[in-house]
Every structure is written in structure tokens, then in C-alpha cells.
Design brief:
Distance between the termini: 36 Å
Low-confidence stretches: none
Structural class: alpha/beta
Order of helices and strands: HHHEHEHEEHEHHHEE
Strand order of the largest sheet: 3-2-1-4-5-7-6
CATH class: Alpha Beta
Largest sheet: 7 strands, mixed
Strand content: 15-25%
Radius of gyration: 17 Å
Number of domains: 1
Mean pLDDT: 91
Shape: globular
């Protein structure tokens, strides 16, 4: 049986085409796969970068970048939590950005949407106060370069919050999670989205992905300080946070 994971040199094209195919059912599938918890995870992630100390709730006026925004759920959550913020959603899949724009119009949310690659963010140095990203790192070809780019566009002292899947640590729960993630999720992908191959790739991408400790170490090497993370949902999800250091090495 061939691997559901693409060769590294084909990964970017594979990911762009795959997410274009599943854009229409992406939000529904996220809700089903997470058992309805994905919105709570996003609320927690955004809250880690909102600096509301000494302000009225929701009055912070920072500038936030959502890297690999997809259908815009994380960017829209930033809008809900901080209506004084300037929010930019970046993605390299046009079909995803179409969905994001449509949802922003419905919410009367004034966000900026930009076509761009997480490895070559089309923004100047230090222009954002915070950066967030959700379920994106497994799909980039160079995680170190992605974190370095996010650090480059964030001002010194700015914040990052990264939401990603993780492998559970408890043996029994790890077995139950594996049955659900690798067997049931592809079936859901076939029934709901008509895209079994995409929802076979997504679980398997977790198998070869970095552990939360390894992600934290990459962050420390690419311009982020005070890095910590918290596991959610029985350890199946991790949210990493950090603070941008004064200078960033180039990779």
C-alpha cells in the first residue's frame, strides 16, 4: 500500500490542491473530528496573545497575523475577542480564502485577507504585535523556516500562539485515539466530504510530526523566548505560546 503522505518535494503542491478540494466541508469536518471542541481550542489559543491588561475588555488595538488561516476561523475568533485589533489572515489556498471572506462578511468583520506562503510571508519586518496559527505546521515543508518567518514579522516582545494536533501520552488513550483518528476519521471524510484520501493524509501527518517538546525547542531556536505549551483534549491537541526575542537568526 502506498503512503498517504507526499514526498517532501511535492508536499506544497499536494497540500494546496488537497485543501482546495476540502474547503467547502472543512469547517464541518473540523467540528465532527474534534467532537465540537475546535472552537474552544481556538478561543484559548487567541486568548494567549491578547494583551488586555489595564484595558477595557476587547479594547486592545494590536495587529495580529493568522498564518495559514484557512477558512478564517482563528482570525475571526481574534476579531471576536478584540474588536479594536487589526487582523490579517494569510493563506496560499484561494478556495479557503473565498470561504474566509464570505464568513467575515456575514459577521460584519473587517479583516484583511492575503494570499501568501507561511515560508515567505509577504509582510515587512516587525509589523505585527502577535501571530497565531492553527493546524498548519504539519502541512509546511520547513517548520523552522515557518517559525523564523513568523518571528521576522512580529515586533520584539510580541507574542505567538500555535494550535496543533499531538500524539497522546497515555497508552490506553493513545490506542483509542489511534482507532478513532486513523480508522473512523477517513470514513467520515468519505461520507461527509467525499474526500477519504484527504482525511487519510491528515491523521497520518500527525504520526510523523514533531512532539510538543520538539516544537518548543524549534521555537526557541528560531526567535521565540519564554516558550511553553499546554495539552488539551486528553493530550491530542497542544497550544504553544512564546514571546519574540530582540533579534532573529536567519535559516
Amino acid at each position: 500500500m502506498s503512503s498517504p503522505l507526499p514526498a517532501p518535494e511535492h508536499k506544497a503542491a499536494f497540500v494546496r490542491e488537497m485543501f482546495g478540494r476540502i474547503a467547502g466541508r472543512y469547517d464541518l469536518m473540523n467540528c465532527l473530528i474534534s467532537l465540537g471542541r475546535d472552537r474552544a481550542w481556538r478561543r484559548y489559543t487567541v486568548a494567549q496573545v491578547m494583551d488586555l491588561r489595564g484595558t477595557d475588555e476587547g479594547s486592545w488595538t494590536g495587529r495580529i497575523l493568522d498564518v495559514a488561516t484557512g477558512t478564517g476561523e482563528l482570525a475571526l475568533e481574534a476579531f471576536r475577542q478584540g474588536r479594536g485589533c487589526q487582523i490579517v489572515g494569510l493563506d496560499f489556498v484561494s478556495e479557503m480564502l473565498v470561504r474566509a471572506r464570505q464568513k467575515a462578511i456575514k459577521e460584519q468583520a473587517r479583516l484583511e485577507w492575503v494570499m501568501g506562503d507561511a515560508l515567505r510571508i509577504p509582510c515587512a519586518d516587525g509589523v505585527f504585535d502577535a501571530v497565531v496559527t492553527g493546524f498548519a505546521l504539519r502541512n509546511v515543508t520547513d517548520i523552522s523556516a515557518a517559525f523564523t518567518e513568523m518571528a521576522r514579522v512580529t515586533r520584539p516582545g510580541g507574542r505567538i500562539a500555535c494550535l496543533e494536533m499531538a500524539r497522546p501520552r497515555l497508552p490506553l488513550f493513545r490506542q483509542l485515539f489511534a482507532w478513532y483518528f486513523y480508522r473512523l476519521v477517513p470514513l467520515l471524510g468519505q461520507w461527509i466530504a467525499g474526500q477519504r484520501s484527504a482525511y487519510t493524509y491528515l491523521p497520518h501527518s500527525v504520526s510523523v510530526f514533531l512532539s510538543p517538546d520538539e516544537i518548543a525547542e524549534v521555537m526557541r531556536q528560531t526567535g521565540w523566548d519564554r516558550v511553553r505549551y499546554r495539552r488539551l483534549m486528553g493530550g491530542t491537541v497542544a497550544v504553544h505560546v512564546g514571546v519574540r526575542v530582540a533579534s532573529v537568526r536567519q535559516v
